[in-house]
Design a protein that fits this description.
The protein is mainly α. It has one domain. Helix content is 73%, strand content 0%. The protein has twelve helices and no strands. Helix 3 packs antiparallel against helix 8 and helix 5 runs antiparallel to helix 12. It is globular and about 60 Å long.
Length: 268
C-alpha cells in the first residue's frame, strides 16, 4: 500500500497545478480566517471577538476551510482525469497494475490529502487559539472533534471528484460537473419530499461542518423550544452524528461505484 502511495506522489510532485491549488488553500485559509474575525457586525448572535478563541475556533475554522475543500476535490478530478488523458492508466494496466490497485492508490492519495489538510488546520487553529485565548490550554480539546469531521468532509468531496473523473474522464467536463454538482443537486431536491431531500450526498457532506452563525441561532431556538416555543422548520436538521454516519456510507459507495465503472470500461 505504501508503495502505491509513493508512486502517486512521484506522479504529482512535479505537477505545477497540484502545488498551485494546495498553495492557494493553505495560504488563503488563515488569511481569510483572520479577516473574518475583524468584522464588527451589529445584531448577529455571534461574538466575532470569539472567532479565534477556544473552543469556538474549531467550528469557525473548519466551516471556513470547508469551502476550500471544493478546490481540493477539483485537484483530485484533474489528477484522475490526467491518468486517462495522458494514457498513464492504460500503461499501468499493461505493465501489470490491476484496476483495483488504481482505485486503491487514489483512495490512499485522497486520504493523505485529507490528513495533511486536517493537521494543517490543527496547527492554524492552535496558533489562533493560544494567541487569542486567555486560558486556552483548558479549552483546547473542547470541540476539537470538528477537525476529524472536517477530514471526513474533505475525503467526501474528493471521493465525489474521483467518481466523476472515472465516469467522464474529460478534465474540462468533469470539473464543470463537479463544481455545478451542488446546483444540480439543489434542483433535484425540489422534486423530493421532505425529509428525504436532506439526505442527498452533497447536502450531507456540506453539513458536516455546520455554519457557526446558524448553530448559534439553533441554540437560541432550542432554548425557546424548552420554554414551549416550537422551532421553525428551517432549523430542523439531521443530528451531526447521523450526518457523519451517512457521509461515511456515501464515501464507501463512491469508491465502490468508481471501481465498478472502471472494471466495465475499457482501458483506452
Amino acid at each position: 500500500m505504501l508503495e502505491l502511495l509513493k508512486i502517486e506522489y512521484k506522479k504529482i510532485i512535479p505537477y505545477t497545478t497540484f502545488w498551485v491549488i494546495f498553495g492557494l488553500v493553505f495560504t488563503l485559509t488563515p488569511i481569510v480566517f483572520y479577516g473574518i474575525g475583524q468584522f464588527k457586525i451589529q445584531g448577529l448572535p455571534v461574538d466575532m471577538a470569539s472567532t479565534y478563541r477556544f473552543p469556538d475556533v474549531w467550528n469557525n475554522l473548519t466551516y471556513l476551510a470547508s469551502w476550500f475543500n471544493l478546490l481540493i476535490g477539483m485537484c483530485v478530478v484533474i489528477l484522475v482525469c490526467n491518468e486517462f488523458s495522458f494514457k498513464t492508466f492504460r500503461q499501468n494496466v499493461i505493465d501489470g497494475q490491476s484496476k483495483a490497485d488504481f482505485i486503491l492508490s487514489k483512495i490512499l492519495l485522497m486520504t493523505s490529502f485529507a490528513l495533511f489538510s486536517t493537521l494543517y488546520l490543527l496547527v492554524v487553529g492552535a496558533l489562533f487559539g493560544f494567541i487569542s485565548s486567555k486560558s486556552g490550554d483548558g479549552l483546547f480539546f473542547k470541540d476539537i472533534s470538528y477537525l476529524a469531521i472536517y477530514g471526513i468532509q474533505a475525503l467526501g468531496y474528493m471521493s465525489i471528484g474521483l467518481l466523476i473523473a472515472v465516469l467522464i474522464r474529460s478534465t474540462a467536463l468533469s470539473i464543470i460537473i463537479f463544481l455545478f454538482s451542488i446546483l444540480i443537486e439543489s434542483i433535484l431536491q425540489f422534486f423530493v419530499p421532505a425529509p428525504f431531500d436532506k439526505y442527498f450526498p452533497m447536502e450531507i457532506i456540506a453539513n458536516l461542518t455546520p455554519n457557526p452563525i446558524v448553530s448559534s441561532m439553533m441554540n437560541q431556538v432550542n432554548q425557546g423550544a424548552i420554554q414551549g416555543v416550537q422551532p421553525p422548520a428551517i432549523f430542523e436538521q439531521i443530528p451531526l452524528s447521523a450526518t457523519v454516519g451517512v457521509a461515511i456510507i456515501y464515501i464507501l459507495v463512491f469508491w465502490s461505484v468508481s471501481y465498478f465503472i472502471l472494471t466495465k470500461k475499457d482501458i483506452r
